[in-house]
Amino acid sequence: MTTKLTRLVLLASAAFTASMFGANTDADLIRPKIGQTTDVIVHYAAQPTAQHHQRVTSRGGRTLHQFNNLPVGHYSVTAEAL
Question: How far is CA 16 from CA 39, 51, 75, 82, in A?
Fold first, then answer.
């Protein structure tokens, strides 16, 4: 259940982020090109730990920002990781 929810949040975040930065078409929101990175914000149930961030980076993502007072992480991930 948690994995499905995480995937859903990642996909929703990717679509939202892409729309904010001027994606060209709806197809860009649904299917990024292979190797293309997308910024996502992941909302966690509790403050994320180093292990949470490591889970993203172990799949080729990059941590862009960690928030001290919010249970979220800002990452750059590839389409394959999503």
Answer: 10, 25, 14, 14
**CA 23 – CA 18 distance, rounded (Å):** 5
Residue whose pair of structure tokens reads 């949040």 in the numeric block: 9
Report the distance separating Cα 72 and Cα 41, nearest Å.
Answer: 7
> pLDDT per residue over 8-59, tens digit each?
566 666 665 555 555 555 555 566 678 888 899 999 999 999 999 999 999 8
**Entry field: residues in the chain:** 82
Instruction: Report how far residue 60's alpha carbon sits from residue 67's, in angstroms, rounded to the nearest whole number.
Output: 20
d(CA 30, CA 71): 26
Condensed to tens digits (0 to 9), the pLDDT of residues 58-78 reads 988 999 999 989 999 999 998
Q: How far apart are CA 67 and CA 59, in angstroms?
A: 21
